[in-house]
Amino acid sequence: MSKRLNKLIDEMNLNLKNAGYKIKAQDIKNRVNDTLNADLQERKNFMRQRFFKTAAITATIIVLTTVTAFAAQNIDLLKTFFVGDTSSMQGFVKTPEQSVTDGRFTLTLEQVLASKYQFFVIYSVEGLTDDAVQELMSDKFTNIDTISFAPENWNDSTYMSGYSTRELLEKRTAAKRYWAIESSAVLNTDEADFFIRLNKMKNPQKIIVPMKCKVETKEFSLAGQPYGDAVIKYSPLGIIFEKGIKNNSKLNDTDTGVFFRMKDGEIKTFNELLDLTCYGGLVKSEEGTEYQRYEYSGLFREIQKISDYKSIIIGNIEYDIKDTSKTKPVQIDEHLYPFDIKPVYKDVLWLPVYEFSKKINADFKWDDKSRSATIKYRGSKYVITDGSDVVLKDGKEMKLEGDSKAFILDGKLVAPESILYGVFYMTNYVKPFDENGDKIDVKDWIWTITP
Fold it and tell me: In the chain, what percentage of residues exceed pLDDT 90?
């Protein structure tokens, strides 16, 4: 492998030394880190993991192997998780490139970025024998027990509600696969180290994951809410938000009720800035109290700085970002609040595009010649075309999830549900049961959409 990598690098005229890259020879593949603890009796962690659906790999593996060296040496953690300018966080990314092996598999910790409230990890697994490669490339290789990832030592200052995992398909080679882990809801006050372990190894060993990244964090206590203080835990990577919800009230667990006024005066919704990854979850329940505490968390779509904001808005109170004791009343545009809409049913539920546009107070125009609708909403222009699985947002193509396409149904343009969160950055909530606990027929479902 090392001869082939070096030959490929010479042909591509890559100066990896100056770029800060390293070539891993065969002896590195076989290195065993004997100092790591391989004790399998430690606490088993039952964590909610979301394994993202991935497209099947077709007969392109030969093409992938021709770019093995380049793909493996050009991982950009920040670009994997964020869009826009990520330069401000570049210095906080750690590149341990630490490996353990059992002679069949090599597990490598590639890159890490963490704050006290979020973490991002990229790791790889390489097969070293024919049977190991076959097992690695199987769709059954990943399950809830494949990887253990958790704090090295649990304590009162370390908490994690879960994390999500997805494969970086573009990095896959003939014998190696890469995965990205992210969490928007971790409490690691002391920046304690985590560990990662491949449980498919014989006598699997742990790699210690360094979490002392010193990313700026700030906690805001926002007084004056009917339930007491709301709490926002901020870093440039994401937000954890805690609020109270009245007992027996209708809970829309995708609605944070948080808005942000940017330094230019524009008001942004939570969903515009953040990908809501952990919906409303009960964090504190006290008998005899009128309200219970719920927590939401999300990751920013672009790296954010405190200086980007002027104020935080919750309910009808606006809090100065520099001094949250300074408040004033505010009235938010009603079209930025959650609304109900009746989806169209045909095999599955579809979004009626015209009705949706009116609900969000957008400008809607239909062009019969191009068979497309143009929607102008909050400074952006969206073009949705009959029979297309691509939406144009400000001229940029955004592919709809799976094989779903927009189409005309009974004279109406409808789009798949995924257009809400994939293109318009809105969340969707539905209760499939009525107040008596009886199941509601899917044809009668009502969507509650939060801009």
Answer: 69
